[in-house]
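PROTEIN FOLDING TASK:
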Amino acid sequence: MHLTTSHTLDDGTLEREFVLSDIPGLLWTPASATPSAPVPLILLGQPGGFGLRRMHPRLVARARSAAAHGFAAAAIEMPGAGDRAPLPDVEHARAELQRAISAGERPGEDVIDRLILPLVDQAVPESLAALDELLPLPEIGDRVAVSGGVIAIAVHLAVIDPRIVAAGLFAGSYIPRRTLDEARRLTIPLHVLLQWDDEGNDRQRALDLFDAFGSREKTLSANMGGHTGIPAFAGEDAANFFARHLGGTVA
């Protein structure tokens, strides 16, 4: 991993760009993060197909919130997004999914698998590699959480990496059957956000996934509204969830 540019935001958060092999990434650390006082890390997920540049304002807002609670945050470019090589099969599946939604139909399981599983199979090893490089930094502690993004990616990552102690999940993307099976193996504390009227999500599959999670501590926060209508207090609830499980400041 090569750290490249850096600058300090107006709240004192340090934003650094890095490259992991050929994958761009961003790391944000609060002013309180030092080698003598390392801080936990939240890995920020993203939706597929958008890219770090387009998502940057939203990622910075989430990183500022993390920093205010005493956490570092990081994000890496998703497969097929930004300047990375496109994934034609995934894009074809995304087009089929959009046609089904426009026709008022539920996308078939094969379409969901072809859209989501290639992202899971590529993004998870890349996320593991990013954690391998980020956690040895002297200002970063050994407690990790994942937040948001494609829920199937976050679930698989949390199932296989014991460094992850909590997960904030967004039920805003279609869920393959494989993810339902994996959910039973996930036992860390979970905070799941669901927009009840999300036009790009299968509400019943999201509820089935929540029911399948093996965690003894799991919370479902369901709010009225579409995919982009998340109320501000939902973000505050998620931040307090991470503070409880990573040892930060609860509002």
